[in-house]
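Worked Example 4.2. Consider the chain below.
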Amino acid sequence: MLQISPDSSRLDAQADPHEKPPHPLSLFEFWPGSIFYTPIVLYWIALGLSYGDFSVPSAANPRIETGGLCGESKSGILDLAGKVASRWIAPYVTQLLRKGQREADAVALLEAMREKEIGFPVVIKPDIGCNGTGVKLVQDEATLLSVLEQFPSSVRVMAQALAEGPVEAGLFYIREPGSSTGKITSITYKESPVLKGDGISTISDLIARDPRTNLLPDIYLPRLKERLATVPEAGETVQLVFTGNHCKGSIFRNGCADATLELTQRLDEILGDVSEFHFGRIDVKAASIEALRAGEDFEIIEMNGVGSEATHIWDSRTTLWEAYRAQFYHYREAFRIGAMNRARGWKTCGAYTMLRYWRKQRRLLALYPLND
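Applying the procedure from the previous section yields the following structure tokens:
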């Protein structure tokens, strides 16, 4: 059993992440955010009143804009890594897209990629984003320009080496200020739904027959609209999602039981070399689950701050009570860690700044292209 606090609170880590769930979707898995998150917003307000500042969590990671709650730079977080931590991060470069200069931007990005020895395929993503919005997989140099042209001007994009590990996971990590050790409070394995062709059915037919994908047509059909009439050959696999985001259609499995001492110690080593990072989720790709348990053979794709979730709650076997318990625990910890840093002299960003960054992020998300 994985303990997450000195009291009786715990994460439910008994389920085998590879065991087929009894139902394709949980009761609340795709509830509208306005319904699922209302109790969480009310809990945040209650904590803000208790601490005398609604933005206390922004001090949990004080070198990140808003603590990573919203509107933060992805590359800015990764840039906080020292030499030890950098060795575990998939190489990346960034480029500001300028009005009317996409060809020059593509050339500049290619030059930066060559300097970092980043080849194709490469992942292009907006530097300020959320839930995988705008993430594109670019297979070759010839298609880079056309992808960049899909993004608006004055937006900075990242080009990151494609991490090849077959196992994608989100690791939630919390470390108190001044401590050299932390704890893993959530592990989520992320799987892309894959359909197998029969040589007769179209992709649209395969989606309609699958017990999970047929319940979520609004997620899969718009993204695949140009391929829906395609008939995959018998035995051919069709991957429906590239990005490991639940709201984009990935399947999440609770892997909390794999929070081993070896993996925790490895994160202590890595995140101890990221300036003032105390609270958030680290998204990785690993060679295998066994390697991840051993704290070996994985690459960090992203590091997310206080706005990130303990995503194991989106396993379809999770009950609503378990999900809220995990959410309340993590937000309570965000306020506690933020208050500890505030006592050390770090400033909170203030509620107005939080709102300003949130509005900026929402505005940008509406401008990004559809995911692959």
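Confidence is low (pLDDT under 50) at residues 1-14. Residues 1-18+27-88+164-192+243-372 form one domain. Compare this with Example 4.1 before moving on.
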